[in-house]
User: What shape does this take?
Amino acid sequence: LLVTAVGVLLCGGLLSAVLRSQRPELAVCLSLLAGALVVGMLLRQLSPLVTALRRMTVLGGVGENHLGVVLRGAGICLVTQLAADTCRDAGDTALAGKAELTGRMLLLLLAVPLYEEILSLVTGVMAG
Assistant: This one.
């Protein structure tokens, strides 16, 4: 997987660099395609990881919803990074910053139920 991913990324990067001077819009598309191919290859390999995390969640007595929060958070991070990098490749750093801000805000929103649960536990311990 590593060799294939690096090969796809190197080929995409080199072809993108060659195209960038004459057809910048195609260079961005090619770069995005190479990145999407590698992300797709990686996502297919995540099944054993998710299975292991589920097993550890059950063994640790942690709620299944906590694992869901972690996985959604990781997804938000990956999509945000891909969007920001694509915007930077297209030369639009302002949009890249907005993509990163959006990801940060979504992570904060995702964490609100966890913060509420922690606050509830703390107040329960203090009261009891």
